[in-house]
Task: inverse folding
């Protein structure tokens, strides 16, 4: 499976683009509603991702907003997948809404670019490392920790899809490699985790780049961020904060995060140099 369907995430993506196009055109929700023969409140629901507009409604709105024909066809096709079931259903009871949105979007993405300053991103964690960063936690209930780790492992499977694997660019601070995770068993956990990073680095779709401490000040020091790219939708930025998240939807702002990622990539160690840095830590643990 090239991607994982999640109707709430699809609704959210479509709503973001409809909102952006309407605001760029200067058309009000009331005018859009009149063109569709519905209430302005329903247009607001479409934009907020609460309901799926029909493909013909999307076409009507985007034509009204002066969107290019390609974008009309692209978003109409995206809406045509509304009937697919969500792969996230098994975990709905343990994920807050803001996290469901992110994981759903990640499942739809074609390329994830993420900067992590403190711990490894979920997409590259081993099961034991993931458990180590989850327990104990003030924000994760003890009875849900194992299921949350299981979800992270499930998310990773898209990296190994044979036909169209998820592309991952992980920009990682060097200090993460030296942070022991796993409590009394940290040496074993970190040894397996470092080996896993080396193995992942051999995949054509995975790029793990280390940012040396010696760099000093750089564009990532303000905090972690992720940019998600999609085959049929515009990119979205994501910034995680304790018990919540900020989603960057305006394309000018998303471009700033993309530029930050490019700058970080330019100063990071190359992939071979990053693997060498990881291997050096692994040798010290053996």
Result:
């Amino acid at each position: 499976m090239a991607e994982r369907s999640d109707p709430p995430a699809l609704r959210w993506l479509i709503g973001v683009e409809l909102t952006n196009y309407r605001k760029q055109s200067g058309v009000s929700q009331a005018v859009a509603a009149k063109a569709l023969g519905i209430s302005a409140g329903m247009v607001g629901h479409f934009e907020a991702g609460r309901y799926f507009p029909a493909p013909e409604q999307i076409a009507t709105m985007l034509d009204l907003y002066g969107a290019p024909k390609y974008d009309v066809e692209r978003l109409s096709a995206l809406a045509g997948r509304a009937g697919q079931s969500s792969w996230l259903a098994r975990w709905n009871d343990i994920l807050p809404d803001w996290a469901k949105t992110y994981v759903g979007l990640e499942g739809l993405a074609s390329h994830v670019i993420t900067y992590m300053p403190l711990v490894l991103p979920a997409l590259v964690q081993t099961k034991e490392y993931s458990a180590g960063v989850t327990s104990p936690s003030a924000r994760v209930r003890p009875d849900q920790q194992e299921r949350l780790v299981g979800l992270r492992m499930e998310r990773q499977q898209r990296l190994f899809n044979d036909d169209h694997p998820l592309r991952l660019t992980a920009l990682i601070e060097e200090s993460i490699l030296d942070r022991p995770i796993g409590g009394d068993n940290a040496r074993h956990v970190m040894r397996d985790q470092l080996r896993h990073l080396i193995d992942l680095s051999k995949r054509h779709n995975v790029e793990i780049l280390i940012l040396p401490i010696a760099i000093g000040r750089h564009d990532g020091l303000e905090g972690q961020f992720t940019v998600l790219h999609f085959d049929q939708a515009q990119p979205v930025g994501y910034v995680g904060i304790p018990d919540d998240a900020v989603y960057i939807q305006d394309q000018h702002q998303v471009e700033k995060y993309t530029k930050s990622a490019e700058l970080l990539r330019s100063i990071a160690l190359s992939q071979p140099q990053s693997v060498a840095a990881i291997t050096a830590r692994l040798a010290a643990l053996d």
